[in-house]
């Protein structure tokens, strides 16, 4: 088992009611499997915020692993290592 730190920022803390959690994951886990666990834990509002539909991530939430956007890594198949830090950061728009 690996231990992973997950951080939630801004509007996501309203949904999750926490800023940070640690979850145990299996070896060889990827971002997609962790998202599945988080959807189970935090429900449909979290899922609606992170996904634009059941397969594609919303462009309004940035997901990073150790500070790097998963889109510049391997996307949902990005492998997670012990003690990695995953952040969920909602896009902020203004004008």
Entry summary:
It contains three helices and five strands; from the N terminus they run βαβααβββ. The chain has 95 residues and is of the alpha+beta class.
Secondary structure: elements and pairs:
Elements: E1 2-8, H1 11-16, E2 20-25, H2 31-42, H3 44-50, E3 61-65, E4 68-69, E5 85-90
Please name the fourth-level CATH homologous superfamily: Beta-grasp domain
- CATH architecture name: Roll
Principal-axis shape equals globular
Integer-rounded radius of gyration: 12 Å
In terms of structural class, how would the helical and strand content be classed? alpha+beta
> Helix fraction?
25-40%
Cα separation of the termini = 45 Å
The count of strands amounts to 5
Order of helices and strands: EHEHHEEE
Task: Give the class-level CATH name.
Answer: Alpha Beta
The fold-level CATH name is: Ubiquitin-like (UB roll)
Largest sheet: 5 strands, mixed
Number of helical stretches of at least 4 residues: 3
Total domain modules = 1
SS strand fraction: 25-35%
What is the residue-averaged pLDDT?
A: 90
Question: Largest beta sheet: what is the strand line-up?
Answer: 2-1-5-3-4
Low-confidence stretches: none
